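User: Show me a protein chain along with its predicted structure.
Assistant: Here is one chain, sequence first, then structure tokens.
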Amino acid sequence: MTQRLAITPGEPAGIGPDLVLALASRPRSSQWVVVADLKMLAERARWLELDIELRPFDPEDDSVDAPGTLRVMAMPAARPVRTGILDPGNAAYVLATLEQAVDGCMAGVFDALVTGPVHKGVINESGVPFSGHTELLAERTNSSAVLMVLVADNLRVALVTTHVPLSAVPALITEARVERTLAMFRSGLSTHFGIDSPRILVAGLNPHAGEGGHLGREELEIIEPACAEARDRGWDVVGPLPADTLFTPSVLEGADGVLAMYHDQGLPVLKHVGFGNAVNVTFGLPIIRTSVDHGTALDLAGTGQADSGSLAAALAAAEAMVARRVARRNR
């Protein structure tokens, strides 16, 4: 049966539409359906001098399109899109494309969701509180807890806290939260990546993992007890480890995942290793969702110079996850 992936290009003034149109020129093994403004896509294709046939989405037709063809679930933008120029008037449109795609996944119309980059600032400027895709998807799917995971080749990094100010992080690091995140990470590595008994390395919060309590006590009082509880369950969990040496090759050898305490503890290393080819995956949702690892790059929109590697990797990852899910159901 043909896989069907929903794609949301994200911020229409950014590079998301460029990336989708560029990849539409290539062969594919699944059906791609772009949830976006049809006029905007056509204008951007002309701007980029890409000969792409935009076809209306027909849920009864599950055929895989040839290169140069793209199916579109058309949703009109509220205001004309100006390449490279943000417009708060289109923030509601961006959110509506996401909601339509998520609802389609929940209804079984789509097998997975692949998202392009959104601009958090302009959405908040429009008057809608928005902290990121992950949080919106959790709310839309009524998911009580979700986990952001970034993947670059064999390096998989999960985050205990995501889009919060650094000053707010320590109060959010609780034993229950670390335990819950470890459980979700372990389950997702098994479900989405086929790793039955993953080895997970856990970073400390403080420099040198607190250095025995001299540089902070979160490791002694919160993170180590959470890791010990996981080990008591028979899980292969190592930590808390100093974050400045955790990502060295010798320490990472044999590990299936790394649990970082906050956004900029784990992601700079991963993006250094795989920027442009890394994938954002959300664990804990009832749907499969992958995304690019970069932002809207307004300065590159419409230039033809944007690198589509991360979106290509996100599409491939989604296809692999759908295949694993189908294989599990058929056992």
